[in-house]
Design goal:
It contains 6 helices and 2 strands, in the order ββαααααα. It is an all-alpha fold. It has one domain. It is globular.
Length: 184
Amino acid sequence: MANTTDAKTSAPIPAQPASGWYVLWGVLLIGTGILALLMPVVAALATGLVFGWLLIVGGVSEIVYAVQTRTHEHFGWKLLSGVLTLVLGVAVVILPLAGAASLALLVGAFLFVGGVVRTTLAFRFRPRRGWGWVLFDGALSIVLAVLIAAGWPESSIAFIGLLTGFVLISAGVWRIVLHRLAVA
């Protein structure tokens, strides 16, 4: 279907997705997310393998790009970057448990840095209304990061599996909710 325009706002109204398929996709995501929560080790392995294959594809793409632009500046660095990305991807595919543990550490690092930034931001917003929510979010992120680091690597596999499950469920729910809102 084509997009139409709302007369009041002149903003385009997105075309409605194919009804059954959009809801089915949401239900499948929710079902897969529930399975991931029930089997976090399997979900962590699958997540690690997907991450590894993405690195392999990215590494090959970087190598191809480096070779195609070998007459340009920094050819060696581009090639080295591609080779390292490819090697990392192969290592993650060969050792998916180690890849999942590494992902947990990476997520923990992102949570910690984001938490520090949001906590600092909260104190800059302090006289404004709602600054406490920003502080809470920052502190919660820091606590989660510390918990990940404290339990690493033993709890890494379960963490990545559970995180994958929650993300899949969330993605399925918002698809169904948005479809229901579009139909209403």
